[in-house]
Amino acid sequence: xxxxxxxxxxxxxxxxxxxxxxxxxxxxxxxxxxxxxxxxxxxxxxxxxxxxxxxxxxxxxxxxxxxxxxxxxxxxxxxxxxxxxxxxxxxxxxxxxxxxxxxxxxxxxxxxxxxxxxxxxxxxxxxxxxxxxxxxxxxxxxxxxxxxxxxxxxxxxxxxxxxxxxxxxxxxxxxxxxxxxxxxxxxxxxxxxxxxxxxxxxxxxxxxxxxxxxxxxxxxxxxxxxxxxxxxxxxxxxxxxxxxxxxx
Length: 248
What we know:
With about 250 residues, the protein is mainly alpha-helical. The chain has one domain. It has helices at about 5-25, 30-35, 45-50, 50-65, 70-90, 90-95, 100-120, 130-145, 155-160, 165-190, 195-205, 205-220, 225-245.
């Protein structure tokens, strides 16, 4: 098998797994895809590949809920911060030639996994949201621009807003959709999102959707908390590997 064929198979398997994880727990496609692909290619290239699968699956998640307008009104300053932060930080990912982006990605995955394993629950007072939301959005954007991962600190923050289950899933879909579009704009600006990469990203959509369908099916038959715990353990190991790989 040629190197190109091997890379295609690896990419398809990665997005199949990433879609499966998202189907079960409602998030994780960019995190899994960036974590695994970051071990075999430049993070900027991996980020370009995830644009279309991430956008389609997150729009699907966003539109599935019943409270889109109230969530947009509540979170628009956070989304604006995501756009500004991602636009400002995308150059960190695309200009990296020393492996620092992979290390940053590894650190982001480790932090996210530790927060998840510790089951730390934060609570944001209502009077803090007006000034905290844009700051969290900007911080999430900078992390997204530097690593291609959307979850820190957006996911812990949204979990701290005391949303119900359906609102949280829809809010995550909103945040990830905006992050995906902002990252795509940054990559396009820096010349990384070329037509050939966009075509490969489109091909990666099929295994992502298959994995998501299977994950949603199994969500009704597997304890999500048990799966989430093992998922976090896997992310912790993967992130640690990416963070220390330059020194191995």
